[in-house]
Automatic annotation (TrEMBL):
Keywords: Lyase, Schiff base
GO BP annotation list: carbohydrate catabolic process; deoxyribonucleotide catabolic process
PANTHER family, per the entry: DEOXYRIBOSE-PHOSPHATE ALDOLASE (PTHR10889)
Name of this chain's protein: Deoxyribose-phosphate aldolase
Pathways involved: Carbohydrate degradation; 2-deoxy-D-ribose 1-phosphate degradation; D-glyceraldehyde 3-phosphate and acetaldehyde from 2-deoxy-alpha-D-ribose 1-phosphate: step 2/2
Reaction(s) this enzyme catalyzes, per UniProt: 2-deoxy-D-ribose 5-phosphate = D-glyceraldehyde 3-phosphate + acetaldehyde
Cellular component aspect of the GO annotation: cytoplasm
Matching SUPFAM superfamilies: Aldolase (SSF51569)
Organism: Fodinibius halophilus
Name of the encoding gene: deoC
Amino acid sequence: MKISDFNQTVSIDQVGIEERVARLNSRSIKKESKVQALKLALSMVDLTTLAGMDTPGKVIQLCQKAKEPYAGLPQLPTVAAVCVYPNMVSVAEKALRGTDINIASVATAFPSGMSTLEAKLEETKKVVEDGADEVDMVISRGEFLKGNYSYVYDEIAAVKEACGDAHLKVILETGELQTYENVRKASDIAMHAGADFIKTSTGKVKPAATQPVTLVMLEAIRDYFYDTGRMVGMKPAGGIRKAKQAIQYLVIVKETLGTDWLTPDYFRFGASSLANDLLMQIVKQKTGVYQSADYFSND
């Protein structure tokens, strides 16, 4: 695809997108399948701490929860990744050493993206050197909204190169993109520039992840796969707090992309608070009663 092709607008049927989401949300899931879905969703969570008050102790506690989500059910899957600020990557790397849990780090002047390309590339290389397996970058929304699509493309491509062997998740910050058409265009640019995942949001802007926006991005992934044969992952992030929501997202993924995407390699949830509700629902399915929320750590 040429850069000039991004000037063309892909028409999105807003009513059709929202009606399809509503239809998929009406699906019912039987108990046995529900337990499998809850465990699958847990394995797809990126446990995240991105607060100004983050400390090494908090990151270590989060890593412990990643390794053992709930001591009462030791057979549970671990989460997919722990996501932290750049200065906490080395702490997470030490705490997760010897596990299969990925270390993700936000970079490129998260969450605003308001920095020079040189600073963004330096930060990207540093987090990878410190042990990050995945880099979550933010696009330059101001340049995108000005129509400077070549700038956005080139920046993503440069960050992808700086990642080396680490995977690149490209955050579109869909709450600032204003229209479904812009979400689709940003998705296409990110994938053609080399993104391994496309991600809705930083979690710092509202609205964050929504199911209609996610469906638009999943359809972009589907069409990109048909054109290129390359599978790109998807990560809705922000505002997903309940297990019921997570299962609805899994249904949307299955119906849009198929079962090949129903794996942590290609689908993630950026929602730490979701983990506790998933755990509560899993325990409920196993025992018939809800555990108190106090039984689960908040980190």
